[in-house]
Predict the structure.
Amino acid sequence: MTWDYFISILIPMLEGSKMTILLFLIAIVLSIPLGFLLTLAVKSSFKTLSWLAQIYIYVMRGTPLLLQLLIICFGLPMIPGIGQYLVLDRFVAACLGFVLNYAAYFAEIFRGGLLAIDKGQYEAAKVLGLNKWQTMTRIVVPQMFRIALPSLANESVTLVKDTALLYAVAVPELLHFAQTAVNRDFTIMPFFVAGAIYLVMTLLLTLFFKWIERRYTFE
Amino acid sequence: MAIIEISKLKKSFGSLDVLKQITFDVNKNDVVAVIGPSGSGKSTMLRSLVHLETIEGGSISVDGDYLVKDGVYPKQQDIKQITSKMGMVFQHFNLFPHLTVKENLEVAPRLLKRESLAVISKRSDELLEKIGLANFSNTHPAKLSGGQKQRVAIARALMLNPEILLFDEPTSALDPELTGEVLQVMKDLAEEHMTMIVVTHEMGFAKEVANRVVFMDNGEIVESGSPTEFFENPQFDRTKAFLRRNLK
């Protein structure tokens, strides 16, 4: 394998990585806040809302992400009557699928974080005269985030790898270009290059989370 | 002059009556030690004063205002107004682990916005000086010993200038060699005439610092009096038995 060949497959794959990274960023930026709102909905004293949120989380975690993506991309347009208005751009549809799915996972992570906070924290805040909003924003959420960080990091690494599912809904991303090169040139080298690019991405992400964890260690 | 009046306080958890018609007054500048076996309802009584427990019957008045009257609470805003006159120190400190010592002291006054930041910062420095932890203002609670944590918790409660300070077993979670430093801070407060109600197992503190001892057992007040009367001449068998077990 020549250097020129290596560069010739690397460039489209890096081009495809842009899509991978873009999807990752959109998914993480939107699903974390949405996940937190879901957690609040689950904890809500308004029972109907709590039940709806729990059912949502159950469905999203209980079915394959690939199936959800296929339904959003190909299933929605087939709904009689309204289907014609539900034809989304493939990438937009994929983003939607990832956000909806990952929000459910993040919701469970945050719920775990909330459960780990001692009730004495709420009592101290109450006795000190903090209202519910202040208690939540100043006392509970910062601690919840710190507790949730390792799990958030873990889930984010999974998200990087899950972006490969774009392949199934024919959005050209990293894996798509690797597969194209493999088919065209009859060599498995592009797969290893793709693997290396994923490893670089997950390494950077892991280092980033380690840095945040260190920064928010309260000792 | 009574600053807290408690009358016929009643509460139950399911079929268990934890408070049965508790009645007693606390005068301004009193240091009241509440003692008794575990499960006697003393913590529940204390927590009901700052509305961490809701009671089912009876009345509590603070400074002449009813926190609850015949089992009926006023509106949220009034409850907050009345409980704000009291500070509370917990058995397990309940410091905020993500905030530094100084931030722990300042978080509530800053959010309540009654005073300028400069005034708040000056007071937190003074209080840290007073409890001997001035060098720890930027430390997180995880780095402190139990005794240091509890001293910080006391300073945090004092930041809001409470008229009354409540202590819920403040030394029970500490190693024996660390209780002294906390009791010393409490003793200093007593000498400054802070009104205090202290639920405690420290008989020494009850004897030396308190001017009144209340003995609770099984959801009722069995006996109360000055430390001398109480320890030297207990009137009731239950008190005598408790003291025999705990004064060795």
